[in-house]
Amino acid sequence: VGEVKATVSGRFDGVKGIPADNGDARVTAPTLGALANVLGAEIAPDLARKGKVEIHLPIATSATGYAVPAFTAKAGDIAIDGSADVRTDGPRPYAKVQISGNILPWMTFASAAAAPHPVATLRTGLIPAALTPAAEVRPAWAILRDFDGELAAKFDAVASPKLRATNVNAAAHLNQGILTLDTANAQLLGGTVNARGRADLTAKPKISANLDARDVVIAATSPLFDGNAPLAGKFALTVEGETTGNDRDALLRALNGKGELNVVQGSFAGANLGAVNDRLNRIRNLQDILGALEAGSKGRTAFDTLTGHFTITSGVLKSDDLAMDAPAGKATATGSADLAAQTLATDLRFTLDNLKDAPPLGIKLAGAWAQPRVIFDTGAFQQHVLQKGLGQFLKSLSKPQGNEPPAPPAVKPKDVLREFLAPIQTQPQG
Fold it and tell me: Which residues, at least 6 apart from 304, have a Cβ–Cβ distance to it below 8 Å?
């Protein structure tokens, strides 16, 4: 709430598209939230209240071009400074930019297809690019085709609406419409992240990148996944990929790559195999077996380690060598996840700690990755119980402790077992 004001003074050469004399640009706003609102952006709630916002860019011209010798931006306790030197005496404009500060408020836009109108207005005369005809609508990133340059950035923290990174360092250079991220490193979610990449912006963007993350902790209640992360724990992740597109969904659907995953002290959403294991240790009748499976059909499964490799083809991540070691037992799994649709289809084979001599319990997870449908495949399990006899099966599971009564004797009528287990039997796989 309040007035956001931008002023530019000086002379501008409309033919060359550069300042013709010394000048000055200023932006003021009551809060960062007010500035973000004018730009059509979202900002972290704790930063939105910070103000007063004062941005100052003094412009100094020279025989070789122009410069912003001492850029400053303040909002409450946020302080950012930097400089830019732009040469226009060569075949293409060249900009060298340095920027640093304690906190960089990262604004996210609903759509990156076209620059918001106020941004396009403020850009005129400050960024080394020829004027664009009013009738031409270009993507916001298209301006990077018009000049070459280099960037060095260092911040104590970079804060987006749902994520905060600290000790952020980055260096990049731009040449003939190709942006190269030479290095980027930061501390994120308790761990470290390093990245390198390349974006060809000469036409529709083509992006390639390598990412290495170590000791990054994603909580089960992480706001990144609206409070229910499909996979949580301490991550070690390496991934490389390439994609093309003009927006987030297009980039995700065109993504191809590969990677390796290692998660410790974690959990996954959709099933609680610990509850199954625990209930099977206390069963006394057939209904208790059904109750154990029902108890495991919701919640989360804790595990000690999860490892695997994966490939990404047209935005679909697939793995066929996932291995998990959990307090409730061990599992192997194959599965896929559609990154754009945020859905998954996973087939686990879980050997419960209390059923080491029985066939693995089949579990299928499908649907939205935060709340997938859970289907237990009990076909092999039923055959094991029928062949062993219920009495022997119960005896192998339940070891009387203290004054607890022993497991009941075997029930002879096998039809009773079939009747109880039939409701949880899955459909045959096609």
Answer: 264, 265, 325, 326, 327
Helix (H, G, I), strand (E, B) or coil at 150: strand
Q: How far apart are CA 147 and CA 68, in angstroms?
A: 16
Q: ω before 52 within 30° of 0 (cis)?
A: yes
Record the tokens describing residue 12, joined without a space. Answer: 């501008």
pLDDT in tens, 384-425: 666 665 555 555 554 444 444 444 444 443 443 444 444 444
C-alpha torsion 329→332→338→339, nearest 10: 70
pLDDT in tens, 179-209: 999 999 999 999 999 999 999 999 889 999 9
Task: Give the global pTM.
Answer: 0.77
Distance between CA atoms of residues 366 and 335, nearest Å? 10
CA pair distance 362, 359, nearest whole angstrom: 9
Q: Give me the helices (H) in 108-167, please.
A: 117-123
User: Which token pair is 80?
Assistant: 């950012």
Residue located via tokens 């980027």: 184
At residue 11, φ and ψ (nearest 5 deg) are -115, 145
* C-alpha–C-alpha distance, residues 20 and 89, integer Å: 13
